[in-house]
Amino acid sequence: MTRDITLANPATMAAPGGHYSHAVIGNGFVFVSGQLPIAPAGNKVNEAPFEKQAQQVLDNIAAALTGAGSAIERLVQVRVYVTDIAAWPAFNAIYAKWIGASRPARTVVPVPELHYGFKIEVEAVALEGKG
User: Fold this and answer.
1) Measured between alpha carbons, how far is 102 from 20 in angstroms, rounded to an integer?
2) Average pLDDT score over the chain
3) How far apart are CA 19 and CA 6, in angstroms?
4) Would you kindly state where each structural domain of the chain is located, as residue ranges?
5) CATH annotation of 5-127
6) pLDDT tens, 54-64?
7) What would you measure as the largest C-alpha separation in the chain, in angstroms?
8) Does residue 117 have a pLDDT over 70?
9) How far apart, in Å, are the Cα atoms of 102 and each of 7, 78, 97, 126?
10) How far apart are CA 62 and CA 56, in angstroms?
11) CB 131: neighbour CB atoms within 10 A?
12) Residue 126: helix, strand or coil by DSSP?
């Protein structure tokens, strides 16, 4: 059995911290693993305010998509995990500016906690290619 998938771990991102890839390309889709607020140099921004964490996570999603040959405009689904649903309005404002005119399906899931004490994690699915 062969697997027709390609793994994408762009050099513009911190190396994956476990046994996973930042993105997997297969069957015309790009699946982006849950991204935490970790800067490209590997610095965890878990002590930063929610807004800075949210922006870093979205920057990571964009970098993973670019590294996989896709783009924000090709997103079809976004899943957001937040530890405080009260941060929803702040996230929504940052997300709206980041996503622009695109309107992928989206889910926001409140969770009790995330790894390293982060306040947000985001995973996504996009179409392969630039457009």
Assistant:
1) 28
2) 95
3) 15
4) 5-127
5) 3.30.1330.40
6) 999 999 999 99
7) 47
8) yes
9) 25, 11, 10, 12
10) 10
11) 7
12) strand
12-17-23 Cα angle (round to 5)? 55
Structure token digits, residue 56: 């870093």
DSSP 19-70: SS-SEEEETTEEEEEEE-SB-TTS-B-TTS-HHHHHHHHHHHHHHHHHHTT-
Evaluate if residue 125 carries a pLDDT over 50: yes
CA dist 90 → 109, 120, 126 (Å): 15, 12, 24
64 is written with which tokens? 């993973």
The single-letter code of the amino acid at 38 is I
Q: What is the pTM of this model?
A: 0.94
Query: HSE (CB half, 13 Å, CA atoms) of 97?
Result: 10
Q: What angle do CA 20, 73, 12 make, to 5 degrees?
A: 40
* Cα dihedral 32, 34, 39, 43 sign: negative
